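Duplicate of #3305? Posting structure anyway:
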């Protein structure tokens, strides 16, 4: 009896990433989403949250070397040509200030592949990941223009449906996407929200 299909898929993308020089298997998820959903159409400036080790960033730079990219993570990232990197916690006000300075206060696309350090407690991990997805939406609403879009990872656990409903009240279009490179058995899904209709305010700041 062979190994389960999902294991073979994971290994396939792992090997492909090694061979093609990508820092993560996840690189194929963004590649597929960019191809299928035209994520980079009309986009000049990108904010990428939770970017380490940098597989998505490599793909962005490879597809369009003239994209302006600001990338953020808690961990340090090996440099990628032309990418402005901020090391910081996306939930911290000082990181938001650095992001606003580096982006000049506006971007066309926000990408977010945030996962908390796994604690082993599923409910806690889901809650922490959901918080990172909510923070992503808050940052996106501050920085995106009316034609802007955000593509983010969210775990399908407690609070997921309410989260999607709340994003629907602030963007004109919201779609859920499962890239082929994402394992079917994984709880992760990606949400693509386009064209903000409302600004959300965090910490009482305008
Ligand atoms: C799945 S990895 C991202 C992989 C990336 N898309 C790639 O292709 O290389 C998730 C990242 O989220 C980051 N992260 C988790 N919580 C964070 C936070 N509060 N602020 C910034 N980064 C965070 C982690 O440090 C980790 O690097």
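Output from current build:
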């Amino acid at each position: 009896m062979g190994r389960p299909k999902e294991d073979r898929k994971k290994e396939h993308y792992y090997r492909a990433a090694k061979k093609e020089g990508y820092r993560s298997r996840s690189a194929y998820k963004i590649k597929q989403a960019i191809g299928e959903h035209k994520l980079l159409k009309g986009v000049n400036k990108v904010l990428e949250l939770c970017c380490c080790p940098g597989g998505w960033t490599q793909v962005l730079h490879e597809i369009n070397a003239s994209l302006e990219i600001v990338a953020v993570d808690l961990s340090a990232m090996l440099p990628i040509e032309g990418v402005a990197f901020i090391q910081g916690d996306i939930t911290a006000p000082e990181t938001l200030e650095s992001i606003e300075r580096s982006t000049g206060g506006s971007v066309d696309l926000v990408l977010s592949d945030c996962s908390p350090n796994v604690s082993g407690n599923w409910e806690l991990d889901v809650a922490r990941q959901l918080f990172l997805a909510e923070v992503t939406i808050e940052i996106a609403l501050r920085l995106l223009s009316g034609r802007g879009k955000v593509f983010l990872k969210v775990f399908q656990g407690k609070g997921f449906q309410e989260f999607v409903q709340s994003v629907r009240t602030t963007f004109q279009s919201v779609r859920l996407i499962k890239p082929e490179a994402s394992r079917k058995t994984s709880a992760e899904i990606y949400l693509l929200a386009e064209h903000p209709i409302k600004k959300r305010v965090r910490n009482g700041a305008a």
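Confirmed duplicate; merging threads. The chain has six helices and seven strands. The chain has a mean pLDDT of 93.
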